[in-house]
Design goal:
With 147 residues, the chain is an alpha+beta fold. It has a domain of 102 residues. It has four helices and five strands. It has a five-stranded antiparallel sheet. β2 and β3 form a beta hairpin. The longest helix has 21 residues. It is elongated, with a radius of gyration of 19 Å.
Amino acid sequence: MLKRNQYLDSSMKVSKEAVDSLKRCSEAGIDPEQLFATVTSKERKKAWAEKHGLTESRGATTLKKFLGKDPGRKYPPGADHKSIWNKDGKPYAYVMQPYSLGWTDLKALVDFCEQHGLDMSMDAQSSWDYPGRTMLIVLTKKAKITS
């Protein structure tokens, strides 16, 4: 059983060594979250892309490129660390990874999604642009119902 605020089994030698190393880094003024981000960023991005069968688009990360039309703004409300992801060679997901999202930006983002027929998901576990400090927000076009 893990103690409160303990997230792994420290009885395992490698876990104890890693925790002790992070403590030493922290005491030396090195932010453990920067170490975590450095170690996990590329793998998180790769795992997310593979899980969803997506490839990162090159070039501009504008809404016009994602939506195929000009929505009157270049980026979604609250956008930071933006990317567009393709499925079958076409824009499928607009990803942003902000450090925070206040009420005003969140409400504006929800309104924007409703106006443009987009779904939105938010996930604190899958961000790869400074993981541990950013959240992953994914916008996708709502599925069209066909009979």
